[in-house]
Amino acid sequence: MRTGQEYLAALADGREVWVDGERVESVAEHAAFRGVAQTTASIYDQSNSPGSELLDPDTGRPRIYSIPRTVAESNARRAALEEWSAATNGFIGRGADHVSGLLAGFASNPAVFDDENYQLGNRVVEFHEYAASRSLWITNAIVPPQANPLDTSSHVRPVEVVDEGADGIIVDGAQMLASGGAVADELFVTCVRPLAPGEESRALSFVVPINAKGLRLISRRPYATMGDAFDYPLSARYDESDSMVTFDQVKIPWERVFIVRNRAALQTQFFGTAAHQLGNIQAVIRLSAKLRFIAGLASKAAKANGREKSESVKNAVAEVSLIATTIESFVESAYARAYVDDVGVVRPEGQFLYAALGMQTEMYPRAIKILGELVGGGVIQLPSSAADMMNPTERASMRRLMGSEQLGLDDRVKLFKLVWDAVGTEFAGRHVQYERFYSGAPAVVKNYAHRNYPFDRAERLVDDFLSSYGLPGTDHD
Fold first, then answer.
1. What are the C-alpha distances in Å from 258 to residues 29, 205, 366, 411?
2. SS3 label, residue 19
3. If you ran DSSP here, which 8-state letter would residue 95 be given?
4. How many other C-beta atoms can be found within 10 angstroms of the C-beta atom of residue 446?
5. Residue 380 CB: number of other CB atoms within 10 A?
6. How many CA atoms lie within 13 A of 261 on its CB side?
7. Of 6, 61, 109, 311, whose CB has the highest number of CB atoms within 10 Å?
8. Chain mean position to CA 276
9. What percent of the chain is predicted at pLDDT more than 90?
10. At 236, which helix (H) or strand (E)?
11. 294 close to 423: Cβ distance less than 8 angstroms
């Protein structure tokens, strides 16, 4: 298992990352990315600590990459995902714990990647082994850039294969949105949306190192640079960044290619294997950790204002706890009803997994809205920065505004700045939008839930009831 220092050292690989009009010379040291890189490094170090569930002692590899073939292995993988999410309080969505599940699912059923033109199943297995043995952080870019289909002058060009040869394929174009891309090791690229006939060149699935020649990442506005960690405690640690990705004639060796020009395989790679379930159970476990943190903030904020016994405040805090408990219950149910698929992989039950994803789009924004209403103007009645706290004149005035013997000035400001970073900053807004679309558009995610709900069983209940009576005067009256 790699150490945190080994991870940080690997970021100095010549990758092309741009932010604020400049190319980043050292990603690990740049203010936009240093916080999330250090957080990730600490998790790698935690993996090597005694008692950590992140490391499989039998293999020396991260459990997040494991293919669970027994209930015990499934539970061990769950424990690893929970430990990883707890280490970030659920605020890093596309850490190494996500795509590792997709790759484990792919490798569990490699035959899916063999077709009449390309036999790539063995490449999938070999790459999974490669990534697991190196404890890589692989993030993804699986959505084409937004474009107006009615605008014939559009220059938007989703990533596509433009050439191939004995040693690999050449891809060109663009993709969105590589969360964590600037500080990850590699990038998994595919198209999650169904493609139409004639779009075969876009039917791709491959993994590419972030430092590949011709690969460029353009970061969105970084939130980690907003100010001191005292003022932006979540932004400073957990802003994983999101990057637009462009490919300028990038060569992908065959050992990293999973799908070429096969539209049907794009969906089969996820749903004909355990990949979608192994990858997305991480999303629900992560969300559960995040909502526990939000519930803790709601409870502490209520107590800070001495309102914890107010019925209306208790109800608001209780509602946040209900949301957190609902998502946690979905995790429990998905594992309690886990089953073995036709290739021997233990999968979390889809009914509960996809119900959680379907509700994610509404439940996280709801929890944040309640938290914001609970704290009111308390998150605005704050000094501009930590520098104000160091000025004796300002401190004397601020004591007239806040603080007590029970909750001192420094502690109150610290708590409410933390709440503001969860409900009101750009970081906070990004997370509300992120959870709304984490697994795709709400209608798409609810379709997953629809597919996995046992409607046949529910309809039989209705049919049995209907068959128990009839019109008056008939045998079933």
1. 34, 5, 39, 52
2. strand
3. S
4. 17
5. 10
6. 13
7. 109
8. 13
9. 91
10. helix 233-238
11. no
The alpha carbon torsion through 275, 276, 280, 281 (nearest 10 deg) reads -70
Tell me the residue type at 288.
S
Residue 400 has pLDDT above 90, yes or no: no
Identity of residue 211:
N
Kindly list the structural domains of the chain, giving each domain's residue range(s) and its CATH number in brackets, ordered by start. 4-271 (2.40.110.10), 275-457 (1.20.140.10)
- DSSP conformation class of 42: H
Q: Which helix (H) or strand (E) holds 268?
A: helix 263-271
Q: Please check whether residue 357 is in contact with residue 445, taking contact to mean a CB–CB distance below 8 angstroms.
A: yes
State mean pLDDT over 78-102: 98
Which tokens in the block code for residue 253? Answer: 């060796």
SS3 186: strand
188: β partners:
140, 207
3-state SS, 66-83, equals CCCCCHHHHHHHHHHHHH
Q: Cα–Cα distance between 246 and 259 in angstroms, integer?
A: 19
Residues 263-318: pLDDT tens digits? Answer: 999 999 999 999 999 999 999 999 999 999 999 999 999 999 888 889 999 999 99
Output the pLDDT for position 402: 86
DSSP output for 294-327: HHHHHHHHHHHTT-TTSHHHHHHHHHHHHHHHHH
Contact 53, 79 (CB under 8 A): yes
Say if residue 476's pLDDT is above 70: no
Which pTM was predicted?
0.95
Contacts for 28 with CB less than 8 Å, ≥ 6 apart: 8, 11, 12, 34, 37, 183
* Backbone Cα Rg of the chain: 25
Pairing of strands 204-209, 186-190: antiparallel
Contact 75, 278 (CB under 8 A): no
DSSP 169: E
Written as one letter, the residue type at 457 is R
DSSP assigned state of 143: B
When pLDDT is cut at 50, 70 and 90, the band that residue 66 belongs to is very high
Contacts of 342 (CB under 8 A, 6+ apart): none
State how beta strands 186-190 and 138-141 pair.
parallel
- Across 199-213, 382-396, 442-456, the highest mean pLDDT is recorded for 199-213
